[in-house]
Amino acid sequence: MFKFLFLLAILILSSDAAVQDFCVADLKAPESPSGYSCKSVTNVTVDDFVFSGLSAAGNTASIIKAAVTPAFAAQFPGVNGLGISAARLDLAAGGVIPFHTHPGASEILLVVQGSITAGFVSSANSVYLKTLKKGDLMVFPQGLLHFQVSDAGYTSVGYVFFSSSNPGLQITDFALFANDLPTKLVGATTFLDEATIKKLKGVLGGTN
Fold first, then answer.
1. For labelling, which of 24, 76, 105, 151 has a CA lying 20 to 30 Å from the CA of 45?
2. Is 76 among the domain residues?
3. Is 164 labeled as ligand-binding?
4. Buried b (16+ CB within 10 A) or exposed e, 95-114
């Protein structure tokens, strides 16, 4: 019995020794699919765990009349490896965050100003759509297409929170029309006519 308890104590102590409190991102090292490597603990400061970038409004003077200010590991090293991150959404009147996905995380949106219509499409093509007011929350499951549109006559603001320090992002419109994918292939896969595709490529910077 004594030998068993002694071995159990050794295992517990060994397990505790393996626990790492945090892994502050070393932004000077390359990023991998599993995140950034850890900065030496001797170089970690409290500032690694504080991010003030979400206090300022983003610049909405763009084609989508919206701005996303991220607080991912690349901007906020302290969240690296913790499975959390955040961002600020600013949507001017008529602003839109187009259909997009986050392949690495689920998302929760909290509206703090204005009114935002948000929705997502399930893998069964069911649509879940709601107009959100100040204080409302909506969750978007990982990997599903979703969007946000401002319904107010002034700038709407929301904060989004992710279940990853690097949720990833792919915007559908840009994936289709902001690159050199041949127009014929885009037409074959979207059933859009060539004139419409070329117009969208012209707007979003695509070629071919």
1. 105
2. yes
3. no
4. bbbbbbbbebbbbebbbeeb
Residue 49 marked as a ligand binder = no
User: Looking at the structure, do residues 196 and 156 belong to the same domain, yes or no?
Assistant: no
Q: Are residues 138 and 192 in the same domain?
A: no
Q: How many domains does the chain have?
A: 2
For the domain that residue 78 is a member of, what is the CATH number?
A: 2.60.120.10
For 104-162, what is each residue's pLDDT tens digit? 999 999 999 999 999 999 999 999 999 999 999 999 999 999 999 999 999 999 999 99
Range of the domain at 195: 175-204
Judge whether 100 is annotated as a binding position: yes
Dist. CA 20–CA 37, nearest whole Å? 13
Helix (H, G, I), strand (E, B) or coil at 7: helix
Residue-wise pLDDT for 121-133, tens only, equals 999 999 999 999 9
- Residue 146 annotated as part of some ligand binding site: yes
